[in-house]
Design brief:
By secondary structure, this protein is mainly alpha-helical. It contains 2 helices and no strands. The radius of gyration is 19 Å and the shape is rod-shaped.
Length: 65
C-alpha cells in the first residue's frame, strides 16, 4: 500500500524576499555622480539576480523531492 504524506512547504528565507534598497539619485546629478550611481544600480541589479537564482535553486530542490 502506498501512502502519500503532505509535507509542509518550507518558507523562503526572508533575505531572498526582502526589498532591495534603491540607490538615491544624487542632486545635482553630475557626470561624476552619475558614474557612481551606475555602479550602485548595477550592484542592486546583481543582488536581485542573485536572489532570483537562489529562489530557483530552492524551487528545483522542492520539485525534485
Amino acid at each position: 500500500r502506498t501512502v502519500y504524506v503532505q509535507v509542509p512547504a518550507i518558507p523562503l528565507p526572508a533575505s531572498l524576499t526582502a526589498e532591495t534598497p534603491q540607490p538615491a539619485i544624487p542632486d545635482p546629478l553630475t557626470y561624476g555622480t552619475s558614474l557612481d550611481l551606475n555602479v550602485s544600480l548595477l550592484a542592486a541589479l546583481g543582488t536581485c539576480n542573485r536572489d532570483k537564482r537562489d529562489i530557483r535553486k530552492i524551487e528545483e530542490v522542492r520539485t525534485s523531492q
